[in-house]
Amino acid sequence: MTGIEDIHWDPYDPALARDPYPLYARLREEAPLYYNDKHDFYAVSRHADVQRGLADWGTYSSAHGDILEIIQADIELPPGTLIFEDPPVHDIHRRLLARVFTPRRIATLEPQVRAFCRRALRPVTGAERFDLVEAVGAEMPMRVIGMLLGIPEADQPAIRDYTDDTLVTEAGGKINHEDILSTDAFKDYIDWRKQHPSDDLMTELMTAEFEDENGVTRTLTDEEVLTYCTVVAGAGNETTGRLVGWFGALMARYPEARRELAADPSLIPNAIEEILRFEPTGPFTARYVTRDIELYDRTVPAGSAVLFVLAAANRDPRRFEDPDRFDIHRVTQHMSFGAGAHYCLGAALARLEGTIAAQEMLRLFPGWDVDWDHAELAQTSTVRGWKSLPLVIRGAV
Q1: How far is 364 from 130, CA to CA, in rounded Å?
Q2: Are 354 and 275 in contact (CB under 8 A)?
Q3: Which of 75, 172, 334, 361 lies in the 20 to 30 Å Cα band around 262?
Q4: pTM score > 0.85 for this model?
């Protein structure tokens, strides 16, 4: 099926996670439709195929999940899990969250997000060495999501740790799908918010009226509200924290880019786009095939699982000139936030947090190296990024 017998891509192999791009290049060029018989999935890696496939929700469905293990577990998914739904019900549920995540409304959060970032950096200001993931990557997104949901500050670390732990892949590529779908972390807050409404997302979700797929005007059930909150917390904490880590790593690898950004902060938003293209925090996403399809003279049968390799698509030379070059001036439309109906609803928030973290880091620290011997890179079923990134602060050279 691969066309080249020695190509083997195992998304659970930690050795490949360290630098998957040479293998992704082989997949694109030699096996644009790849089949892994060990884990029983297909994969496509060319930009055009990924873009076309993600836009075609009728053929490549999210209703069975967008994580390989969940699709293969064939379990019933709770209503309101936007990322695990197809239109038209997906569109109905998405519109409820879209009220909060409009770019204009996200822009109004800038002062609070900046305050959270400065607060996270305050303990390490003037330090000669600190872990960027611990100080900022794990701290700032947690505070932002906690603020949006109305979670008390004292409870925010526990919520972050709980949602992060559900994404950990066990040896052999197994994931506890019961944990990843659990809404237990937020149950204690629902009754409290009913009695003490506030200006937060949880209150808005409990009170917003909408017309459901049956034409009934109603509010969300408690279980639906819990599911929404779980989706927002999981997506907002993990992926944005990894983006901060990749900023720190790439600025150490490309000090000339760091110097440019420090001299001209107006370049930072575009640099964030290039970081997202170059090292996407979510390297691939899965879909369920609803009908037999023909790709590259092969049949992918209905019922199959397909992985769309976003990280490979982001470096497709058919779409990007010199794609393995990191260029903060590149004008890019990357695939890191997906495409079509499931384009990431939190994209504007992730961009805002990444931009602010970069601005504040460059304001406080003239330059840094990474202690690569003690840095730890990890990949789960959904994200790839730094668990630990110790920075050694130095001069601006």
Answers
A1: 13
A2: yes
A3: 334
A4: yes
Q: Residue 79 class from Cβ within 10 Å (0-12 exposed, 13-18 middle, 19+ buried)? A: middle
CA-to-CA distance for 335 and 316, rounded, in angstroms?
11
Residue with tokens 């906690």: 146
Q: Estimate to the nearest angstrom the gap between the alpha carbon of 206 and the chain centroid.
A: 26
Quick one: pLDDT at residue 1? 44
Nearest CA to 300 out of 50, 49, 52, 42 is that of 42
* Residue 133: DSSP 8-state: I
Place of tokens 């009226």: 209
Eight-class DSSP state of 237: H
Residue 351 identity (one-letter amino acid): R
Q: Report the run of H or E that residue 368 belongs to, with start and end.
A: strand 367-370
Instruction: Name 308's bridge partners.
Output: 44, 285
The stretches of 174-218 forming alpha helices (DSSP H) are 177-180, 187-195, 201-207
Of how many residues is the chain composed?
Answer: 397
How does DSSP assign 52-70, residue by residue?
Answer: HHHH-TTTEESTT-SSHHH
Which residue do the tokens 């949901």 mark? 149
Name residues of the chain where pLDDT drops below 70.
Answer: 1-5, 80, 160-185, 396-397
